[in-house]
Amino acid sequence: MARYIIEFLVKTHILKGVLNMLDYAIEVNDLRKEFQVKKKNEHFWKRKNKEKEIFVAVDNINFDVKKGEIFGFLGPNGAGKTTTIKMISTLLRPTSGTILVNGENVVENPIKALTNIGTVLAGERSTYWKLTGRENLEYFAAMHGITGKKAKEKTDYLLKRLELDKRADETVEKYSTGMKQRVALAKALIAEPNILILDEPTSGLDPQSARNLREIILEIKEEGRTIFLTTHYMEEADQLSDRIGIIDHGKIIALDTPQNLKNNLNKTNIINLELNNWTKDVLEEIKTIPAIENVTSKFNENTQNFEVKVHVSNGSETISNLITSTISSGIKIINFRVEEPTLEDVFINLTGKSLRE
Ligand SMILES: Nc1ncnc2c1ncn2[C@@H]1O[C@H](COP(=O)(O)OP(=O)(O)OP(=O)(O)O)[C@@H](O)[C@H]1O
């Protein structure tokens, strides 16, 4: 009998669904978000008043977030990170596709799905600035049905934990950006969600506050919570994430552990040149050298030199061609080094551009 039941569950994919539920905190299948935007004509005066076109912000993406992991969602401005987060946290309705949170479909059962999630959106004024940090937490505790002694205990614990206790009775408007970010995090944690969604949590913070917040994020993971984190800081994604999905123009272009993403670039040498000059002609010439994959450059205001990064796929012969070509163009090489690939290099290799271009 038991055998028949198991066969039935396997055949109907029910078992697979149940097993996925045990493994995955978030499952995103074929997720798409289209926005209607004003039509971009070459000449705006030719545009008829109500002409609209479809802009695809999230283009049929698929990924799973495992329970207990930090999943970094990395991409440049406008790549589709916030749109994805808003769909996962039920703030935006997908155009198509499905999102399951702990096995619950967020469109069909938003309330059930939301009991598992705490969200902190980027730059969001999610707390009341005229209330104190303590009052904010007590208020949001009450919203989740947590009152009395339990609310006080939780509030005290989170204020201390997020180093807000010394200024807990001051209004939030007087807090620094880092403190405001920590109150928003405390608010998201008050109902003890098992999934925390953080949109650009360290954006706008000074390096010390950003470091402190990253440590807190790692502690929250240690408690067994799942964290879905968007960022456009490569080092942050590298340092915090168990796995990283890289999104560009609404599409996932890579998904793996940070180490595997970098290892996949192993055959590529990353050459850093510091040059006293850099011209478009030299760039074009260098690009014609076989096995040169990508060239990016920036001007360093401090040194008044150009920093040129070249991805080379087959080592020494190409490197000597690169040096010869540069020198014969009358450019002086001030510094030369070969680097280990970083996530930034992974991104350049995949897209041909640097993340902040
Ligand atoms: N309501 C909307 N209507 C039209 N276009 C939108 C809307 N919301 C977002 N977009 C567009 O969708 C694209 C993705 O936006 P999204 O905010 O998801 O990017 P992001 O990766 O979070 O970028 P950032 O790091 O700058 O926050 C952008 O081009 C954005 O302009």
Automatic annotation (TrEMBL):
Q: Which GO terms describe its biological process?
A: daunorubicin transport; doxorubicin transport
Which residue numbers delimit the ABC transporter domain? Answer: 26-274
Write down the Gene3D superfamilies for this protein, in alphabetical order: P-loop containing nucleotide triphosphate hydrolases (3.40.50.300)
What membrane topology is annotated for this entry? Multi-pass membrane protein
Q: Highest taxon of the source?
A: Bacteria
Q: Which InterPro entries match?
A: AAA+_ATPase (IPR003593), ABC_transporter-like_ATP-bd (IPR003439), ABC_transporter_ATP-binding (IPR050763), DrrA (IPR005894), DrrA1/2-like_C (IPR025302), P-loop_NTPase (IPR027417)
- What is any one of the record's Gene Ontology cellular component terms? membrane
- Where does the record locate the signal sequence feature? none
Q: Which of UniProt's keywords are assigned here? A: ATP-binding, Membrane, Nucleotide-binding, Transmembrane, Transmembrane helix, Transport
Please give the family membership noted in the entry: Belongs to the ABC transporter superfamily. Drug exporter-1 (DrugE1) (TC 3.A.1.105) family.
- Tell me the protein's name: ABC-2 type transport system ATP-binding protein
According to its UniProt entry, this protein's organism is Sporanaerobacter acetigenes DSM 13106
